[in-house]
Amino acid sequence: MSDDDILVTEGLTKSFGDFRAVSDVSLRIKRGAIHALIGPNGAGKTTCFNMLTKFVAPSAGTITFNGRDITRLRPADVARLGLVRSFQISAVFPHLNALENVRIALQRSRGDSFDFWRSKAALKPLNARALELLDSVGLTSFAYATAGEISYGRKRALELATTLAVDPELMLLDEPMAGMGHEDIDRIAELIRRVSANRTILMVEHNLQVVANLSHRITVLTRGRVLAEGDYRTVSENPEVREAYMGAGHA
Amino acid sequence: MTATVEAASARDFTERNRKANWIAFATMVALIAVAPFVAYPFFVMQALCFALFACAFNLLIGYVNLLSLGHAMFLGLASYCCAHAAKVWGFEPVSAIAVGVLAATVLGFAVGALAIRSFGIYFAMITLAFAQMVYFFSVEAPFTHGEDGIQGVPQGKALGLVDLSNPWALYVFVALVFLFGFLAIERIVQSPFGEILKAIRENEPRVISLGYRATLYKLAAFTLSAGFAGLAGATKAIVAQNASLTDVSLSTSSEVVLMTLVGGMGTFYGPALGALIVIAMQNYLAQFGEWVTVIQGAVFVACVLAFRRGIVGELAARAKVSL
Predict the structure, then answer these.
(1) Gap between the Cα atoms of B272 and B48, Å rounded
(2) Which residues contact A13 (CB under 8 A, 6 or more apart)?
(3) Cα separation, B81 vs B103, whole angstroms
(4) B214 touches chain A (CB under 8 A)
């Protein structure tokens, strides 16, 4: 592999019994790129995602991150290496406030937080950075709001701020626009573009408009296999892709 | 503008919270100070031991969302070990209690290491299974004396200085042990470690995805909880001057669930209040014999149906503070 590739998979496969959810998927994610993984429902995108972040163990194949084989690592260890994911359903800590949400991620910078004898006042130095991150996603005025009570779009923004707090080299976004209205979509897309500086992003996304606008490279999956790969133009002109995924409506 | 308003209201909340917690704490200390003059001191000490036990249990269910159905194994084992150390080895009470706490902590670590990877009801069932094993061990092991238990445990001189056979000295000693345990658990919840625990309670996969080995945090919390349950059990052995099968039994494990739910899980003061209520019911309703269990069951059902947050949980929600 070349140094340009931050993440490489070879023959990644996941079987559930006889059913092959993901079959022989080989991906190359370029450093600094925004790479999109698209495909119809059940194409294996999320399973793929779960394997990359080790939440699901692959049946076969290898995953290499920054030249290091991570196929057998545990999810928390992969995250420590700088490969951090978001979730399809917004993953905030609902009973904590926004500031505390981000601070949980910032606590990583202290190493392991097993110090149960110390007051949490020890975390105060992290507040300034947490507020800065909240500001960067436009949540300054919600810093002390309970995360479970803010709007859906803001939850996603909060999630993004939390992910950014661990400063990942490679960010995996699982349908960042799912369930969002137009206004929020534009805001989050802008946000993703902004945070993609100095890092690589791999995202699963259904909204083709967003994919077309944001991503440098697209991989199309159907039935667990890679159907096509390239920039939006190449992919969208591929007749097989149009047949399998986009249908006549998008022609 | 909104930001300053929000920040101000957050400060206001923190301020109100601090006040409410001071009032609650002062009330609790005042009650502990007055209680032996209005109630039978032995009963109050018993209640304090169970209150600490419930606080330890609440550390898991309230802040990590782990339901242990076998917590009596820690209470009971510590009780036996403390009683044995005091009676057979002739340890003074503080060292004897330390032996009990150590035993419960080690057992907690071992059970936790085996159970912690399971989730929800499976985790609960595994803790239940281990508790049954500890129960049968207690029936068979020679040092526990089976059905008889360990009787006539000497109270001795704490650290060789204070004679605990003096009822007042014993009361002060037990009150201090309780307050130490209560404040220690509160500190654990309010520590950087506690923040991670609460995050795990809210969304474990997310915590893992941020790079925390959630399993280790849960294991640490389980071990700590076992240790404090042990502190309660060991102290109880010194108070009651015995250790018996009741302390390791399934009914004790389920009582602590009841205490915590009645008082309010995930609150600092709820489990202690719940323990007081349950122990009081057992003492003052003893004349009804077997019916106590039925009454307890009815209270449990009423709690789950009418006020899920428990007594303290409901009060805190009404006053918009967290206690």
Answers:
(1) 8
(2) A20, A22, A23, A24, A25, A58, A59, A60, A61
(3) 7
(4) yes
SS3 B49: helix
B residues 177..196 contacting A (CB < 8 A): 187-188, 190-196
Out of A87, A93, A144, closest to residue B202 by CB: A93
Q: Which of B10, B199, B205 comes nearest A104 by C-beta?
A: B199
**B198, A95: Cβ pair inside 8 Å?**
yes
B25-35 per-position pLDDT tens digit: 999 999 999 99
3-state secondary structure A30-95: ECCCEEEEECCCCCCHHHHHHHHCCCCCCCEEEEEECCEECCCCCHHHHHHHCEEECCCCCCCCCC
Chain B: residue nearest A105 by CA? B210
Cα nearest neighbour of B8 on chain A: A144
Contact B272, B311 (CB under 8 A): no
Nearest to A114 among B193, B205, B209 (CB): B193
- Total residues belonging to chain B: 323
CB B100 within 8 A of CB B237: yes
pLDDT at A74: 92
Ordered by where they begin, the domains of chain A are: 1-82+168-251 (3.40.50.300), 91-161 (no CATH)
Predicted ipTM of the assembly: 0.88
Measured between beta carbons, the chain A residues lying within 8 angstroms of B2 are 141
Average pLDDT over residues A213-228: 89
Residue of B17, B105, B186, B206 best to disrupt the A interface, most CBs of A under 10 A:
B206
pLDDT digits (tens, 9 = 90+) for A134-176: 998 889 999 999 999 998 888 988 999 999 999 999 999 988 8
Number of domains present in the structure of chain B: 1
What range does the domain containing B64 cover? 2-319
